[in-house]
Predict the structure.
Amino acid sequence: MDDPLPPLSSVEARVLGALIEKQITTPDYYPLTLNALVNACNQLTNREPVMSLDEADVTSAIDSLRGKRLATLFSGQESRVAKYKHTLTDALLLTPAEVALLTVLMLRGPQTIGELRTRSERLFRFDSLPEVEACLKELAGRQPGPLVVKLPRQPGAKEARFAHLLSGPVATMTAVTAIPFEAPPVPPASEGPDRVAELAADVARLDRELAELRQQFTEFRKQLE
């Protein structure tokens, strides 16, 4: 059974999420130098909210994460500068799917099941929405404490969102306990209008991925300078 983690600040969550993301998406550049980690935290894509952290902010967060045993200083024989890596999976026994969802939640805030499936694709590919829902349910039922929570559906919204609890309880948690987990309805594939909407969503996703790849290429160039 995992021990409960000390709550993370918003900056610590951003730093931890960035470390995990880069380990998976750009393993050749991982562990990260301080400069690369600052750039990862301040990305304009795949971040909500967008932050403007400086080296002092990130260094302070790293020091705090190291004290919580969630990050460590990497010292390899070929490394001439300090580099950092996360140790979340040492502190908690998590599946790759669970790591992906927690990472996206740390980097982009509360999201619906559909958003989580699309946005976590670079980290872990979920085959269906029910698979995402089942993984969230596992995280919500973790002992000694849940790692995610389902938020009340906002007025005018079609779906409820989910948030991570690594930074402690969210403001609306008191209204969440009575909301059961329910898989979102999946329309039959044969329905024409829904299929068109699905294809439009795929096109939008591809556009986002292309923008993300361009952003990552720019980041690579910065890291090599």
Notes: Residues 10-92 form a domain with the Arc Repressor Mutant, subunit A fold (CATH 1.10.10.10).
